[in-house]
């Protein structure tokens, strides 16, 4: 259930130190989740449209995560990219509700539970159009 965005932002700032507007991705850091292209798209979008939203990526580090972290570290916006390994379940709704949008660029999904969670939080979604996602 959606909570007030201002209230959600206060929770996220207190718990995770993220104090301004952000786009959210929740997925494991592995190649088929397409997080590397999300970071590249973030760079292009910030440069082309002069947006200032941070990028918050929540997920476990698994196979291939080093490349994703290196890409983020070399981004001209590296200070605005946050990696969170784990979010307490009681903070999950606030994390979604505080986000400007949930971005899910996965290349292969069996179901895509984070999409349902984002919808339940009232958060706009930007996603790929493949496998189970449509």
Structure notes:
The protein has 5 helices and 5 strands. With about 130 residues, the protein is an alpha/beta fold. A 5-stranded parallel β-sheet has the order 3-2-1-4-5, sandwiched between helices. β4, α5 (about 115-120) and β5 (about 125) form a beta-alpha-beta unit.
Write the layout of secondary structure elements.
Layout: H1 5-16, E1 22-26, H2 35-49, E2 54-58, H3 65-73, E3 81-84, H4 89-98, E4 101-104, H5 113-120, E5 125-127
Parallel strand pairs: 1-2, 1-4, 2-3, 4-5
Helix pairs in contact: 1-4, 2-3
Roughly what percent helix?
Answer: 40-55%
Strand arrangement in the largest pleated sheet: 3-2-1-4-5
Distance between the amino and carboxyl termini: 22 Å
Q: What's the helix count?
A: 5
Please indicate the percent range of residues in DSSP E strands (runs of 2 or more): 15-25%
Question: Unreliable segments (pLDDT under 50, ≥5 consecutive)?
Answer: none
Return the structural class: alpha/beta
Mean pLDDT: 93
Q: How many β-strands, per DSSP?
A: 5
The radius of gyration is 14 Å
Shape: globular
